[in-house]
Amino acid sequence: MFKNTKAFSGFSVDDVPAARAFYGEVLGLDVSEENGMLTLHIAGDRDTLVYPKGDHEPATFTILNFPVDDIEAAVDELAARGVAFEHYDGYTDEKGIMRKMGPLIAWFKDPAGNTLSVLQED
């Protein structure tokens, strides 16, 4: 039934203008707005809907993962743009990069408190 549909993902925020600035200006994504909602235009035709929700609660899981070739460079560039990385005792280093298991990965939050990550592709 859904084999040929172009499904997409979405998540809520509590402040659409703040989300637009963060995703468009800080992260550098192409962003459009229609009917009070944002669309993040992500490479590979993977648009993601960002919608306002008055009683928004941040997701308790990672909602978007951004693969990068060089996590050190990505973390440094995002930190220079004001992004604060999460630190998990015993798991992440001083930059917020987890190096102990799985791919190198660093988590950060959007203005609505949703968790995002950058992870290094091998």
In terms of topology, how is this protein built?
Blueprint: E1 9-13, H1 16-26, E2 30-34, E3 37-41, E4 48-52, E5 62-68, H2 71-80, E6 97-98, E7 105-109, E8 115-120
Parallel strand pairs: 1-4, 5-8
Antiparallel strand pairs: 2-3, 3-4, 6-7, 7-8
Structure description:
There is one protein chain. This protein has helices spanning 16-26, 71-80; strands spanning 9-13, 30-34, 37-41, 48-52, 62-68, 97-98, 105-109, 115-120. The protein is globular, with a radius of gyration of 15 Å. The chain contains two helices and eight strands, in the order βαββββαβββ. It starts with 8 loop residues before the first strand and ends with a strand. This is Catechol 2,3-dioxygenase-like lactoylglutathione lyase family enzyme. It holds the Pfam family Glyoxalase.
Compact summary:
The chain is 17% helix and 33% strand. The chain is an alpha/beta fold and 122 residues long.
Highlighted features:
single chain; 122 residues; alpha/beta; 4-stranded mixed sheet; 8 strands; 17% helix; globular
How do the strands line up in the largest sheet? 1-4-3-2
Distance between the termini: 35 Å
The biggest sheet amounts to: 4 strands, mixed
Radius of gyration: 15 Å
Number of strands: 8
Number of helices: 2
Task: List SSEs in N-to-C order.
Answer: EHEEEEHEEE
Secondary structure class reads: alpha/beta
Strand percentage lies at 25-35%
Low-confidence stretches: none
Can you give the mean pLDDT? 94
Estimate the global geometry from the Cα principal axes. Answer: globular
Helix content: 10-25%
